[in-house]
Design goal:
By secondary structure, the protein is α/β, with parallel strands linked by helices. The protein is built from 16 helices and 14 strands. The protein has helices at residues 8-16, 18-32, 55-65, 75-80, 101-108, 131-141, 161-168, 175-187, 242-246, 254-268, 279-282, 285-296, 301-307, 318-327, 339-347, 367-376; strands at residues 36-40, 43-49, 70-74, 90-95, 120-125, 147-152, 172-174, 189-196, 205-212, 219-224, 233-239, 271-276, 331-335, 351-356.
């Protein structure tokens, strides 16, 4: 959801206060399969991640809310199961009767084998700042399937939302805090540690760790040599890839790009590789493995992400810009084949004075993957 459509002052205030802490806790609750209360002004919605659903959890959810659940999901995923026109954003799918946990999972998960489909009454677009949009955003932050069961907290009656939630042991979090969370956490990085780490082919190297304000996985700057901050620095932005970087997977070119960039920077004398904790184009390792399964069934790398309900690329480059700022670099020669990275850094205030091509030979396993990146994602190969 474009943050330009949300009042940034509201988001910032929510994040800096207890709202940001509440989102951290809400992520943990979502991953454990616990319902939470999302407050949107004077409206409260109960939400539960679809991925964690069981019939017992769904039964408790219905009992707590006192109403039939709806399904909040991305518009793209809804269109793929015949429930929308394929637009962006989030939709709310109203159901006519109490569905089973499996039927809801079938709608959200392309790898689920459909059973009896629930009866759909209506599909409506959720507003960019409402609780249903926030519930899907929270599922993404938690690296789960981007879908949630939602229902108005109808049992509250005359009691305050906070009192009712406290009585039921439910966490309350503001919708604006969830929606603004990824961008705000990305902007708030703390330099927490560094050390000299000689690398093969790049012995004069330091590794510098930056921790986001949500306490999540650190982003890493791999600084080779002693670059001059007055000159444009040779830089590579590399999103982590467990399978490619560590295991040497042949399904992608990530490992080649990582090690090749370090070699090239060392040969040029100095530069930095920014290693971002954004596995699978920002969808997380488990969802990336699901995308691999879909690729094995015939989908390409872009369509697999769309099948899961994600955008083709969920990454943000604010952390890279903030790391460069803290390191004292405002201009870069960017090693990339992706013009969108050049554009994204520019929007974040970093001037890209040159795009440096960064291409490696394909193999029998990743030729189609590279071809898709060129045809559908605009990569210059």
């Amino acid at each position: 959801m474009p943050l330009s459509r949300v009042r940034m002052s509201d988001i910032s205030a929510a994040f800096q206060g207890p709202g940001g802490v509440a989102v951290d806790r809400a992520v943990a609750d979502f991953r454990r399969g616990e319902p939470i209360v999302i407050r949107e002004g004077d409206r409260a919605v109960l939400a539960l991640a679809v991925e964690a659903l069981s019939d017992a959890r769904l039964s408790r959810f219905v009992q707590l809310s006192g109403s039939s659940p709806s399904l909040a999901m991305t518009g793209r995923r809804a269109a793929l199961v015949g429930l929308g026109n394929g637009g962006g954003g989030v939709v709310r799918v109203a159901l006519s009767s109490d569905p089973s946990a499996r039927s809801l999972r079938d709608l959200a998960d392309p790898l689920s084998r459909p059973g009896v489909a629930p009866t759909v009454v209506a599909v409506t677009a959720a507003r960019p700042t409402d609780a249903d949009t926030a519930a899907v955003a929270l599922a993404k932050i938690a690296r789960l399937l981007p879908a949630a069961v939602t229902a108005a907290a109808g049992q509250v009656g005359d009691r305050a939302i906070d009192d009712w939630a406290r009585l039921e042991g439910l966490l309350v979090v503001e919708a604006t805090a969830i929606i603004g969370y990824p961008a705000d956490a990305a902007r708030r990085l703390t330099r927490v540690g560094e050390a000299r780490v000689p690398l093969a082919g790049a012995e004069n190297t330091r590794i510098i760790a930056f921790r986001p304000s949500d306490g999540g996985i650190e982003h890493i700057a791999i600084m080779v040599g002693e670059p001059d901050p007055k000159e444009p620095i040779l830089a590579r932005i590399h999103s982590e890839c467990f399978t490619g970087d560590l295991l040497g997977s042949l399904r992608c070119d990530c490992g080649d790009q990582l090690r090749g960039a370090i070699r090239e920077i060392a040969q040029q004398g100095s530069g930095v590789l920014l290693y971002l904790a954004q596995e699978g184009r920002g969808i997380g390792l488990v969802n990336k493995l699901r995308a691999y399964q879909l690729q094995d069934e015939g989908f390409d790398t872009v369509d697999a992400n769309l099948q899961l309900g994600f955008d083709a690329d969920e990454r943000i480059y604010v952390p890279a810009a903030e790391m460069l700022r803290q390191l004292g670099f405002g201009k870069v020669r960017l090693m990339t084949n992706n013009p969108l990275k050049v554009e994204a850094l520019g929007h974040c205030g970093v001037k890209v004075v040159e795009r440096v091509a960064h291409v490696f030979p394909s193999n029998d396993h990743n030729a189609g993957y590279l071809r898709t990146k060129a045809l559908k994602s605009g990569h210059l190969l």
